[in-house]
Amino acid sequence: MRVIEGKVVVLGSRGVGKTRLVIKYINSTLHRNEEPTIGVSFFTCKIMLDEVKIKLQIWDTAGQERYKALAPMYYRNANAAILVFDLTQYKTFAEIKSWIQELHRNVQDPMILTLVGNKMDMHAERAVSRDEAHLFANSIGATYFETSTETDQGLEQVFLSTALGLVRLADEGKSRSLRSFQSCESIYKNNNTAFSHLNLDNGSAAFRLPYVHIGIPVDGEDVRTSGEGRLETPSWSIEHIALGEVEHTSWCC
Amino acid sequence: MEIEQTPTNVATSDTNSTSEYLDAEGESDPDEGVADGVDEQDDYYQEQEREAEAQRHSIISELRGELGTRTGNALSPDPGAESGQSKDLAASVESLALSASASVKTEDSGNTVDDEPDHDYQNDSAWCGQKKHIFILSEAGKPIYSLHGSEDKLVTLFGVIQALVSFVQHSQQDAITSIHARGIKFVFIQRNSLILVAASRTNMSVQQLQRQLSDVYNQILSTLTYSHMSKIFEKRKNFDLRRLLSGSERLIYNLLSNDSSSKRVSNNVFDFLTNSIRVFPLATSTRSNIISAIQANCSKIKDLVFAVLIANNQLIALVRMKKYSIHPADLRLIFNLIECSQSFKTYENWTPICLPIFDKNGYLHAHVSYLAEDCQACLLLLSVDRNAFFTLSEAKARITEKLRKNHCLDAINEGLQQPYNDAKLYEQVLSVPELRHFLYKPKTTAQLLCPMLRHPYKSLEEFERLEAVYCNILHRIHNNARPLKLIYEVREREIVLAWVTATYELYAVFEPIVDKATVIKYVDKLIKWIEKEYDVYFIRTHATF
Lengths: 253, 545
Description:
The complex is a heterodimer of chains A (253) and B (545).
Chain A: E1 2-12, H1 18-27, E2 40-49, E3 52-61, H2 71-75, E4 80-86, H3 90-106, E5 112-118, H4 130-139, E6 143-146, H5 155-172, E7 179-182, H6 238-243
Parallel strand pairs in A: 1-3, 1-4, 4-5, 5-6
Antiparallel strand pairs in A: 1-7, 2-3
Chain B: H1 2-17, H2 20-32, H3 43-54, H4 59-71, H5 80-111, H6 125-128, E1 132-138, E2 143-146, H7 155-172, E3 178-181, E4 184-191, E5 194-200, H8 206-224, H9 226-235, H10 242-245, H11 249-256, H12 268-273, E6 277-278, H13 284-298, E7 304-311, E8 314-320, H14 328-339, E9 348-353, E10 364-372, E11 375-383, H15 389-405, H16 408-417, H17 423-430, E12 435-442, E13 447-448, H18 460-477, E14 486-490, E15 495-500, E16 504-510, H19 516-532, H20 534-537, E17 543-544
Parallel strand pairs in B: 6-13, 8-17
Antiparallel strand pairs in B: 1-2, 1-5, 3-4, 4-5, 7-8, 7-11, 9-10, 10-11, 12-16, 14-15, 15-16
């Protein structure tokens, strides 16, 4: 069996629910825990995608400003970043841009980016529209999801999409820090065929993949990815970021 | 100087109009004497400060430097990296400042309970009636922290504080130490652009309050480091430090709420009063097994400076790098961190922490995790290498495995599960039923032994009295002007004994009906017993890797 081990860093402003997102996904029990993270918390989880076992090392960082100086230590050698913002606070969305810029400056290896708008259950207080977030995600080459840690909506997709992205990265072989190897525990022999995990109609799939965007997601259309028909986007570039600066009409001062 | 002048004037004019709480002080000042002067300050702390000043060089960067040369490893960070990063941070702080500060403020006030825009704390009897207040502000008068109430709404009070401090500083080239008025002590300390003030109705002496403030200051350094904070204030005198401290307020709060003023009855306060820590009682063989398990799995990790194992606010074991040790004040910060971070219980953490007395200019990186789900002892592995997470994580797993194999986890659990983990001590105390409580601190180690609180000190009022008794005798024993060796006092509700010898300090509280000869007999008995059991309750020397 093929095993891919990747480092995932969770970034975002304070109080957007990074720790909750991770904890909820990993053991689905939410301690009513309002403590801010100190430094970084470390989690591991395994995701099976058909023939590929993906081990995620999740680094859940603290969002406070003072940890910003230490962030390079956390995202160093990361293969994927989950950028979380709070849908009810526009500021946290705007701050994602500074994270993108920083990653762009400091990380050379290609990285899978996932943009997550959290607290989607709070419809009334919503301050960031789905379209705007989508557009921004496209511009930085990220996949966009909305989640709720209260109702558990969308959590699975975030991590599955990240895992899928890592598989893609491993297939392309462009990332030096991503570890991919054949496990001797494998019961399937010589199963090197790439993209086997994408064979969605295979009944033996460990997971039936939910709606997952890879590359540029198209809004409103049910996009299923296949090995061939995948739209390849270059990993983000500074021009894309410039394009992503959409003025939000309702946001002022 | 010009910068401070302006708010000073504003603030003084405010004094007369608004603040009733402080107005009283303003009037009684002339009779009571404004400043006690510097000479009454605790020598101990001054020494400590001087020591810290003396070792200007950073131990951490030295350690890192050594590592770099020894290993020649490209991974080990260069000593300059830290400063480079803080420069980056300062720059980003600068750029964010305009946009963020406004929103941060609104957010913070949104979190507080009362949202009234102009809540008048100074006429709020609950606020004024608090036994203790702690205020922290920057030299420029910017509010940073208030123990009770929202610091945003206390701006006038902060102005008054700043005016008092800068008046004494500039007109008399002196530093204000304390003001005593109407049974309230106002104690001031100034450290590195910060002004920390305690206003207290408790029995704590000026020195004890200073130590508490100094602990709070250390807590702030522990989150920010001295060099980082200095740089920020050098750049912008009126920087709002709350932005950098956000999320760590609970650490400051927890540190301050150890005494009776926050309605808690616990032995924690005595750690700080005697400037020591408590040790988790364990059979000597168990403790040495634990230490050797840590040594065996960590001795090969080059950049590991300390390994600290803690349970229930007590030290199980400390293993250190040769030549270095942890000061009890630093250890108290670690205890504080562990005590108020429940989240460490569920997952591994990789946390930067500055131990200000060890090295106030740099972070150590701490791998923090509980030994196992079925053993609530917390292990911290402190390293100077910021990339050591996985090495330490593996080491921790091996330590847990080893401790499980040789039944040390069971031994720790046994200690934790006994209704009170000093049950044996309790028994011992019970055999002298007239002995109500005691503090025993050997001179050679900064470790404290005290039995669990029992009747009558389990109720809050009685505990407050006990705390006051200890504050009082500790203050008299450690008085710089006239230190005492022995106090025997028959009070209305208890007999108090304080005895300082060459090897230990003992403070004991007896039933009021015992006569002197019996007290002496009991104390002898107690001392003999402690000497016999010394290794269970104290750690003579901390092992090295």
